[in-house]
Amino acid sequence: MVVGVDGSLVSVRALDHAADEAARRGCPLRVVYAVPDRDEAAPVLASSVSRVADRRPALAVETVAAEGGAARALADASGSAALTVVGTRGLGGLGGLLFGSVSLRVAAHAHGPLLVVRGDHADGGGDVLLHLPDDADAAVADYAFAEARRRGARLRVLHTPAHRHVLPELPSLVPATSPGQERLARRERADEAVPRFGLAALRDLHPQVEVVTDTVRTGPAHALLEATRDAAVVVIGVRRTDGRPGPRPGAVGPTLLHRSHCPVVVVPAG
Q1: If both were cysteines, with which of 77, 79, 90, 179 could 2 make a disulfide (CB 3.0 to 4.6 Å apart)?
Q2: CA distance to 41, 79, 90, 174, per residue, from 44 (Å)
C-alpha cells in the first residue's frame, strides 16, 4: 500500500485511510513524501509513522523521501503497490481542482489502482459501488468484487448502456405495439441482461458477495453521484487514450472525481 503525504490536513486524512486499507488487506504501508531536498522530509515522515503507529500498532510502515514532483514519485511507487492512495488536494502544493492536478497525473501514469480519498463520511458501512458501462473491463469488475469481499459488503452495480439513436416513425394506431415501441422494449431487455451475463463468471468466483444491479438510461453521472451518498467506495475504470488513461468526453469519471460523496477507486482498464 502506497500513500502520498505532505503534512497537510488532506494528506493526513489520506494517510489514515491508507493505514486502514493496508490493515484490511494485511500488507505493509509505504509512506511517500516528494520534496526538492530529501533532508526536508524527515519531520513529516516521522510524524506520519507516529500517527500510523497510534492508529494501527501492528501495521508495518516504511517511508520514502523522493526528490522531485509528487505525481512522478507516486506513479513510480505504484509499480509495486496493491493500491496507491492520494488526497484530493494539497499534494505537492498543488491545491485546487482534483482533476487536472496531482491525482490526474498519478492516474495517467500509475501502474495499478488509485484511490482518491473523497467524501465526508467515515470509512465504514455501505455498498461497494461499481460503474459498469457497455465496454466494461473485466479487471475493473473483478477489483470491485474483491473489494466487496474484503469489506464484507454488498456490491451495487450501476449499468449505463450507450444510448443508441432511434429514428422517429409515424404514429401507430396502437402505440404500445408499434415497431418503435417493440424495438425499444427489446433494447431495454438487452440492456438489463448485460450485467447478469457480463458478471456471471465473477459471481461464480465470489459467491459470498451479494450483488444488486440497476440499469440507468438517462443522467448516468447524476445517478452515480447520488449513489455515492450511501456507498463505502465507488470503483470506476479508465481506459488509455493515446497511451495515457483519461476520461472520454461525456464520461462520468470527472463528475465523480470532483464531487463524489465517498472515496473513488480508479482502475486502469483495457
Answers
A1: 77
A2: 6, 23, 14, 72
**One-character DSSP codes across 192-251:** HHHHHHHTHHHHHH-TTS-EEEEE--S-HHHHHHHHGGGEEEEEEEEEEETTEE-PPTT-
| pTM, rounded to two decimals | 0.79
Q: Residue 177: which residues within 8 A CB-CB, separation 6 or more?
A: none
Q: Which residues contact 236 (CB under 8 A, 6 or more apart)?
A: 131, 140, 252, 253, 256, 264, 265, 266, 267
Residues 160-183 have pLDDT tens digits of 776 544 444 445 555 556 555 555
